[in-house]
Amino acid sequence: MRITVLIENTAPEHSGLQAEHGLSFLIRTGGHLLLLDAGETGAFWDNAVALGEDLGTVELAAISHGHHDHANGFVRFFQGNASAPVYLRASAWGNFVAPRGGELRYIGMAAALRKYAGRFRTAEGICSLLSGVWLTPPPEEGRGADASLWERDGAGALGPDRFAHEQAMVLDEGKGLVILSPCSHCGIDRIAAAVCAAFPGRPLLGVLGGFHMRAGAVGGLNRPEEEVRRVARQLARLGAGRIWTGHCTGNAARAILQEELGERLQPPLTTGLSIEL
């Protein structure tokens, strides 16, 4: 299989590719072309064109969770792709908010996406999309409240976002499991453990995604250092062969992961990166 990063926070200098705070994966597996997330704007589409990829031929797509920096680019996707269904969790349409500039601001999916309601499909449980392709729900025991991410219920009451709207994509072409988890709010260690339990006996070939460990734009940690080390050790115990991370992981967390994971940790995710597994 081949996985190409269509958008990420960074892009190689002089590549001509655009970067933005977001993430989008293009996946070729089993003769199929799939999309997981689309970033914040239409930049992912422009990057695909620059990379020689025709997103009009994508067969299936999915949204990992209902935040703007992963979902709003689907407005551009629907404009250029006439048929591919897009799978999400039912709660991805929630009223998600986060503190920005001293007030709580909406960070959920763009209202413009609702006019494409007929293109969306609801994923439930372990959802089989194609042979060797699944969407998996968040682990039953999620990481819990995050002080920076909140959700309003139907009555407007504010509570912590428990990330019932999050899902991972799992691929298996016969050599082992590959997990794509673009933000991993529930904890990449718990997500990977739940996937391994759901597919017993299959080796964990690779893990790709953001690990939600960065605090603010400066890239500090949003959790204790020992927790980052524990997450890394759990991924190693699960046998993760190769690990690619970026987007919301942050440089401070990456340095700790490198200490713990050694050669398992691959070069950072960046726009235009192509990975073969």
How would you characterize the overall build of this protein?
The protein is an alpha/beta fold. The protein has a single domain, classed as Ribonuclease Z/Hydroxyacylglutathione hydrolase-like (Metallo-beta-lactamase, Chain A), CATH 3.60.15.10. 19% of the residues lie in helices and 28% in strands. The chain has helices at 43-50, 68-71, 74-80, 188-198, 225-237, 251-261, and strands spanning 2-7, 24-29, 32-36, 60-62, 86-88, 95-100, 103-106, 120-122, 127-130, 133-136, 150-152, 158-160, 168-172, 177-181, 204-209, 214-215, 220-221, 242-245, 274-276. The chain has a seven-stranded mixed sheet with strand order 8-5-4-3-2-1-19. The chain has a six-stranded mixed sheet with strand order 9-10-13-14-15-18, with helices on one face. The chain is globular and about 45 Å long. The N and C termini lie close together (5 Å). The mean pLDDT is 95.
Short summary:
The protein is an alpha/beta fold. It is 19% helix and 28% strand.
Descriptors:
277 residues; alpha/beta; Metallo-beta-lactamase, Chain A; 7-stranded mixed sheet; 6-stranded mixed sheet; 6 helices; globular
For CATH, the homologous superfamily is named as: Ribonuclease Z/Hydroxyacylglutathione hydrolase-like
Q: Please give the share of residues in helix.
A: 10-25%
Top-tier CATH class? Alpha Beta
Q: How many beta-strand runs?
A: 19
CATH architecture: 4-Layer Sandwich
Overall pLDDT score:
95
Provide the CATH topology. Metallo-beta-lactamase, Chain A
Radius of gyration from CA coordinates? 17 Å
Structural class: alpha/beta
Could you say how many structural domains there are in total? 1
**Neighbour order of strands in the largest sheet:** 8-5-4-3-2-1-19
What are the segments in which pLDDT stays under 50 over at least 5 consecutive residues? none
- Euclidean distance between termini CA atoms: 5 Å
What is the ordering of alpha helices and beta strands?
EEEHEHHEEEEEEEEEEHEEEHEHE
Q: How many distinct helices?
A: 6
Shape: globular
**Main beta-sheet strand count, sense and barrel state:** 7 strands, mixed
Strand content: 25-35%
